[in-house]
Design brief:
single chain; mainly alpha; 10 helices
Amino acid sequence: MSPFAIGLVIAAYLLGSVSSAIVVCRLLGLPDPRTQGSGNPGATNVLRVGGKKAAVVTLVGDMLKGLVAVLAARWFGLGPHVLALAGLAAFFGHLYPVFFGFKGGKGVATALGVLFGFSWLAGLTTAATWMLVAATLRISSLSALTAMALAPIYVWWLTGDRHWLVAASVIMTAVMFWRHRQNIANLLHGKESRIGDKR
C-alpha cells in the first residue's frame, strides 16, 4: 500500500478509538457507562443508564466512525483492499481504543457503519435484520448476532465482491461473536436481558 493509504488506515483506527458512549455520557453529565449497567460502552448500555436521547446519539456516533473511515478511502479513489482495511481499523479502534486503555465496546454500531460504507444496501439489509429481530424478541445481543451472521452474505450478494469486502465482513462477524461470548452463554441459559431493562 502507498504511504497515504497506510496513513488513512491509521487515521481510521484513531477515529474508531473515540468512544461515543463515554464522550456522550460526559457531555450530558451521565455516569461512565463502563461503571454502570453491563459495563459496555455502547448504545444499548447507554440506553440503560441515560435514556433514549443519549443512546441514539451514541449509536449515530459509533456508526459514523465506521462509515466515515470507509467513505474517506472511497473518496480518495483507493481500492477495495484499502476500504476493507480502513473499515476494520475503525472497527478494531472501537473495540480496542488507544484513548481509553484499549477497553472498548462490542462493535455492533461501528460494524454497521462500515457495512453502509461498503454498500448502502448491505448496511440497510443488515440494519433491517437487526430491527426485525429486536422488534420481535427485544434482545439486543441476539439481534446483533443474527444481523452480523448474515452480513457477509449481504455484502457478497449486493456488492459482487468476492474478496476484500466479504473477508472484512467475515472478520467483523467472527470477532463480534467472540466479544459476545458471555451474551451467548446467557442466551443459552435464558438469562440475557432485554432491550430497556435496568441492571
